[in-house]
Amino acid sequence: MAEQEGTLSTPDNHEDTAHCEHISRMLARISDKWTLLVVRVLGQGPRRFNALRREVGEISQKVLASTLRDLEENGFVTRTVTPVTPPQVEYELTDLGRELFKPVQGIADWVVANSTRIEAARAAYAKRRARE
């Protein structure tokens, strides 16, 4: 059988497999809807929890807290507690988070720029499905 272009000739390339697995794990962590929206908002500057929740939209307190913990664990967000009564907590992108913000903002810009085309494709698809 002929080798396909771009296919590795050694099926047991463990380094490439490890890279793919690492990429897959990281994409699973950063590509969910809430992570992208939180990073996009924090890309505009630091936010306190409730301000962030309002700007992100229909996110529950539990999901936002979990998303922020995951982002902090992976080095994308810092959490700063100001010792006042009640304590104030502010979230901010780290240098790594600001690097992630660039492609996230690119995706958001692409969605906005192409929303009309996407809606037209959805309408055409629905019309085709209705005729079947």
What can you see in these coordinates?
By secondary structure, the chain is mostly helical. It has a single domain, classed as Orthogonal Bundle (Arc Repressor Mutant, subunit A), CATH 1.10.10.10. 64% of the residues lie in helices and 11% in strands. The protein is built from five helices and three strands, in the order ααβααββα. The chain has a three-stranded antiparallel β-sheet. Helix 2 crosses helix 5 (95-131). It is extended, with a radius of gyration of 20 Å.
Shape estimate: extended
Our measurement of the CA-to-CA distance between the termini, rounded to an integer number of angstroms, reads: 40 Å
The major pleated sheet works out as: 3 strands, antiparallel
Instruction: Indicate the percent of residues in helices.
Output: 55-70%
Strand content: 5-15%
CATH C-level name? Mainly Alpha
Do you know the CATH topology? Arc Repressor Mutant, subunit A
Q: Helix/strand-derived class?
A: mainly alpha
Order of helices and strands: HHEHHEEH
Mean pLDDT: 90
Q: What count of domains describes the coordinates? A: 1
The appropriate CATH architecture is: Orthogonal Bundle
With helices defined by DSSP (H or I, 4 residues minimum), what is the helix count?
A: 5
Order of strands across the main sheet: 1-3-2
Count of strand segments: 3
Low-confidence region ranges: none
Q: What's the CATH superfamily, by name?
A: Winged helix-like DNA-binding domain superfamily/Winged helix DNA-binding domain
Rg of Cα set: 20 Å
